[in-house]
Specification:
Layout: H1 2-7, E1 17-21, H2 27-36, E2 40-45, H3 51-60, E3 71-75, E4 88-94, H4 103-113, E5 114-124, H5 145-148, H6 151-160, H7 168-179, H8 186-196, E6 198-206, H9 221-224, E7 228-235
Parallel strand pairs: 1-2, 1-4, 2-3, 4-5
Antiparallel strand pairs: 5-7, 6-7
Helix pairs in contact: 4-8
Length: about 240
């Protein structure tokens, strides 16, 4: 999806230096490195990627299970990226920004490490206010729990679910995922990008048909209807101040 979205604007990643912000388990970074053949790709995440688990996942996906030269992973800080100024031609972030506590500060760091002629790609799905924005589809397949249930109700349902028996670690992980959602809207994301010094160049919104619950009849449709977004942004020119 990212390749097609970028390729439509003649943005290709071969031979480029890439950063993946919020790389998680690293499988997307590995897949991008294999398919796009950049010069380098660094996956950054606040939780350092488990290389042994990544190798197993790569093997399961039919990818070489050795980490190729040029692909690496580093632990980042909540609002800091351990890389030099203007280090990357392309920065990508896939399904991570809905969990970032300080989007403006992270985007300012991205602005610092991206080259002036670089490109930023962001994908978010699902956005918090949309039907499945809670990420808890295993427990609430019809969605909207984030608007219609209290945290205590959600926690109780998860604790008493049959899903708990067999994979308690996944239940704990999904509780944490829900608890860290930042309620970002696409308008919030646009404001954060502008504040951090980016110009939004291309946008694709994701939406699906849905039934509006009675409890949400007065909730803005602009929030409920947008379930995801892909966008490209570029650094704004730096304005030199005369001393």
């Amino acid at each position: 999806e990212m390749t097609a979205f970028c390729g439509g604007d003649n943005i290709f990643l071969s031979g480029k230096d890439i950063a993946d912000i919020g790389s998680g388990d690293g499988i997307l970074s590995a897949g991008t490195f294999k398919s796009e053949k950049p010069r380098s790709l660094v996956g950054f995440d606040v939780q350092l990627t488990n290389i042994e688990l990544l190798k197993k996942a790569m093997k399961d996906e039919g990818v070489d299970e050795e980490i190729p030269e040029g692909l690496s992973f580093q632990q980042s800080f909540e609002t800091g990226i351990p890389a030099g100024d203007s280090s990357f031609d392309f920065v990508m972030s896939w399904s991570a920004f809905e969990h970032i506590r300080n989007p403006i500060q992270v985007l300012q760091e991205i602005r610092r490490v991206i080259k002036q002629d670089g490109v930023l790609f962001i994908q978010i799905w699902p956005l918090f206010h949309s039907q499945h924005g809670s990420h808890l589809w295993d427990w609430y397949p019809d969605g909207w729990a984030q608007h219609t249930k209290s945290f205590m109700e959600i926690e109780e349902k998860m604790n008493n679910s049959n899903l708990l028996h067999g994979d308690e670690s996944n239940v704990a992980y999904m509780k944490s995922e829900y608890d860290t959602l930042n309620r970002l809207t696409i308008d919030d994301l646009q404001r954060a990008l502008l504040t951090a010094g980016f110009s939004v160049e291309k946008v694709e919104l994701q939406t699906d048909a849905f039934h509006v619950p009675r409890e949400l009849q007065h909730y803005p449709l602009s929030k409920l209807a947008v379930s995801g977004v892909k966008l490209l942004a570029t650094p704004m020119p730096v304005i030199e101040k005369n001393l």
